[in-house]
Amino acid sequence: MTATSExxxxxxxxxxxxxxxxxxxxxxxxxQPRHRITELSVTSQLRGDFTxxxxxxxxxxxxxxxxxxxxxxxxxxxxxxxPEEFAIRLSEHFTxxxxxxxxxxxxxxxxxxxxxxxxxxNNVTDGEHDHAFVKGxxxxxxxxxxxxxxxxxxxxxxxxxxxxxxTGSEFHGFPKDRFTTLQETxxxxxxxxxxxxxxxxxxxxxxxxxxxxxxxxxLESFADxxxxxxxxxxFHMGKAALEAxxxxxxxxxxxxxxxxxxxxxxxxxxxxxxEVFYIADRPYGKIEAEVRREGVAAEPRAWNTVPGFx
Amino acid sequence: MTATSExxxxxxxxxxxxxxxxxxxxxxxxxQPRHRITELSVTSQLRGDFTxxxxxxxxxxxxxxxxxxxxxxxxxxxxxxxPEEFAIRLSEHFTxxxxxxxxxxxxxxxxxxxxxxxxxxNNVTDGEHDHAFVKGxxxxxxxxxxxxxxxxxxxxxxxxxxxxxxTGSEFHGFPKDRFTTLQETxxxxxxxxxxxxxxxxxxxxxxxxxxxxxxxxxLESFADxxxxxxxxxxFHMGKAALEAxxxxxxxxxxxxxxxxxxxxxxxxxxxxxxEVFYIADRPYGKIEAEVRREGVAAEPRAWNTVPGFx
Amino acid sequence: MTATSExxxxxxxxxxxxxxxxxxxxxxxxxQPRHRITELSVTSQLRGDFTxxxxxxxxxxxxxxxxxxxxxxxxxxxxxxxPEEFAIRLSEHFTxxxxxxxxxxxxxxxxxxxxxxxxxxNNVTDGEHDHAFVKGxxxxxxxxxxxxxxxxxxxxxxxxxxxxxxTGSEFHGFPKDRFTTLQETxxxxxxxxxxxxxxxxxxxxxxxxxxxxxxxxxLESFADxxxxxxxxxxFHMGKAALEAxxxxxxxxxxxxxxxxxxxxxxxxxxxxxxEVFYIADRPYGKIEAEVRREGVAAEPRAWNTVPGFx
Amino acid sequence: MTATSExxxxxxxxxxxxxxxxxxxxxxxxxQPRHRITELSVTSQLRGDFTxxxxxxxxxxxxxxxxxxxxxxxxxxxxxxxPEEFAIRLSEHFTxxxxxxxxxxxxxxxxxxxxxxxxxxNNVTDGEHDHAFVKGxxxxxxxxxxxxxxxxxxxxxxxxxxxxxxTGSEFHGFPKDRFTTLQETxxxxxxxxxxxxxxxxxxxxxxxxxxxxxxxxxLESFADxxxxxxxxxxFHMGKAALEAxxxxxxxxxxxxxxxxxxxxxxxxxxxxxxEVFYIADRPYGKIEAEVRREGVAAEPRAWNTVPGFx
Lengths: 310, 310, 310, 310
Description:
The structure is a homotetramer.
Chain A: H1 2-8, E1 11-29, E2 36-48, H2 51-55, H3 65-76, H4 83-97, E3 101-111, E4 113-117, E5 124-125, E6 128-135, E7 140-148, E8 151-165, E9 190-200, H5 207-224, H6 230-244, E10 248-257, E11 260-262, E12 276-279, E13 284-293, H7 300-303
Antiparallel strand pairs in A: 1-2, 2-3, 3-7, 4-6, 5-6, 7-8, 8-9, 9-10, 10-13, 11-12
Helix pairs in contact in A: 5-6
């Protein structure tokens, strides 16, 4: 051992976190005939001094991941006002219940469900069935809470919001080198799948109302900009979100450029005036950036362990 | 060789088909300021006498899969009225253009896009942006055309229509044996992802109108039945579709029972009156059946090579 | 109701089956210090007269899918000699235990695990750790048993066996039309992911030994043929399997042509003598065929509900 | 605009990067009869001053992602000695060719292929076919190079190395609270899928030799530890890698605890002495940690934008 240490130096534990990932649950609010359902996928990870669990296998401080799962289910019983508040509540519970849990990371994903329209009258309210649902939307809402002692950071977000413009997008004026073969264009399809996260500077807001409005702003601003590049569209979307919501300090995007290539009809003796496009899978462009409000302090701890830009 | 043949018998080619799978395309109808977009994934497979391609590698009759792909793109230029009609047109082209192509299989999937709502006025019609879109719906529309000479069979369908009832579902009265541990219940969550295909007895219909109505009927009938089993729900949905549409001969379903298990709160000293459910991935129930109109001739060739029940 | 029936005819239940899908289990044989592990995914589906479950929701005959799952686990306790025999045993149990279960479909997938090599001596046999394993192989072994009363059909198979030839593959001599743009080639990459199923005419064989040998024959015959088309390679592989194993009546393949396109280096002033290829995702060629032994009776019931060709 | 700014502050671009993701290529070395093939997926992202592309859509500095893709293909022509060196070469090219490209991120994934064994003699060397291959291994090798001007950081790694111990794993001594239901155990299955990245302090090594040895050390150390917790196994594996390779400064792991639950056979009147386990999908444990060499300076820029722990 000593010999090894002399050669390799002392080897120690660095940063670490552990917990239960993707606890999937359905909460049914059934106190009214018209039910409300909430589908979540919850990941809970704890941080603190867990050195002895790693170095000698002592579990004396390891709150089992199974217990974290049980706690998620038990807390859901009280109702889920928003994914952000649910994550904050979990963060408070674990840090206050176990001295050595100094903080952690709680991520909640929420999926959209809609009441099924019905032309009948039984169990139906305003033309919608009270307790029958169809999955809706294509994006997933995300909430990420990171806690360090008493400090709490809240990142709201969404994943896989698929949007496309069939015109109103150009790309030209780029530098050329030996390996450049791309043609300039003043009319192309612009398509992406938006992943975004934004940081709130307060928890004193209606998270559901703000989420819905940010989603609306992102869609509208994607639509209205005549785009010279996906980068410009990204910045325009972020700027619009920040202008609409002073409670947001910064927003980060990861936006693939999902290529739709115009099919060359020349060999067939036909023309293709931007009508038929081949949809490629890979490779794809990958545009990532942060749009932020100048003068607001950066909070790297809010973004610690966040994958890439989002 | 002779020795081998004596021992093993003559080895010959059986049924076969070949083509290009998942040709993904976007067609933009841009003759009006308000664009219409159609996203398809097309699979084209030819049948006929291709024995020599297999036995001696002679390609003299093999219309390349690349050519099939090009044809899909070229035909999209003329417009896509419905996935069914697009598949029929492809089937006519290949069987009429190449003597030895006796038939084949053409499958078309269509994905839903919606105009993005906009509060602005530029490029906006009735509150929706003219050429900016957001992906909608969760299900995929499918059309499968199988052709044998002049005979054409059309199967319409949908995949992954996710529906759920938060009450109004029971399960009891089943046989018990040594391995039975399931508890009977008079109130559970019923959740499934509907895959369905139905066969039309005519091509003289408005495929889009009928598709939309079958989808509506499937949703409504899923919602309105107080269910004693997923099998009963399946039959009720199929019966409703056939009653609403005499042009449908039969409908087949594959419907997983996506288990939502009530979490046991007893160890926590809490009650769980059907409020919090754990969503399992695997295993899942798998319910498959055909609902058909008595007296209509079966057409096994329509369903040949269709995966399982759908 | 009568009115509806007059208009639409009587609507009845057609073919149906139900059960539990993807029961994933690990069986550990630990009677020796050197453990043996078997990972399976089992799907069990029953057929018979289940009409009343569908039409009126009567579960009196519905052996719960949960019970089917429990039975799979319980039977695993006795050991799993091969996926084929495990499926046959399940088929015997359900048809003999419940009068109204006339048959069904049992599919078993098996995944490969290998002992981890070890240079130490503790818990190590012949340089391999006794109870530590690493997942191996890329293909999945499949077994499908279909039972109709006392008649049992056994299909063995494999999925996703990824193979590639870096030369020794040509493609030319194909018919041209207006939409043909593909260039002929005498040297290309041939790549596919083999899915195959073959039918045994007997159950009196060592399923594991035969499986291993069929896999070996498929790999060797893929390798040794100078290929003029993927169709020729497919037939050559099937013929080799049938010649090596008289107990196989027929073999079916679904083999995508996974395109590797030569990158055009001309714009860069460089040559690319078959060295750098772009790997495409979609679309891909899809080649499907059966190779069979002449004179052996076809058994469509063996292939009933098998997805497509495999 | 001024009004908005007064209310919301100036909104500016923060960190950003862009490029082409998942350029998939196959390089064939065919100067010898026995071919060597290398399959890569390459992601190239540039950093620097791209503000005007975002704020006004000026592409004057935007090296197109298409050009980045072409460069990847062109460079592959010269041969790929290792994924790490290929990424370093790309990083040098882009930062030296374009003044305003200050750095970036290049990630390379490599997949394993093996020669197909052959009992024939044609095109065969030492019992293996010269140019026919079968995909091997289950893990993916990863290399990530981040460059900031002249400073280059190299992270090697692997993804999805699936390992399992059928005994020699315990879990007990953990704290209990109201929500604890997990039973203690002295014998369970331990299964995980290792994702790891480690940082080299030098580029003057044989990357392939070291990678192979780190993989070997991770497997052996996983196998040899009698484990009291996955955390302990993780630390043991990291320590072993650092002790074996002084050129590694730190190693990070993300290791799911892939639960294998013992099936309760009590209701069936049977015993289950750790023989039959149900394999669950979700939720799963998620254990993440860094193991590092004390006294070696941390390099947060090496890990910037790395998803989570790995």
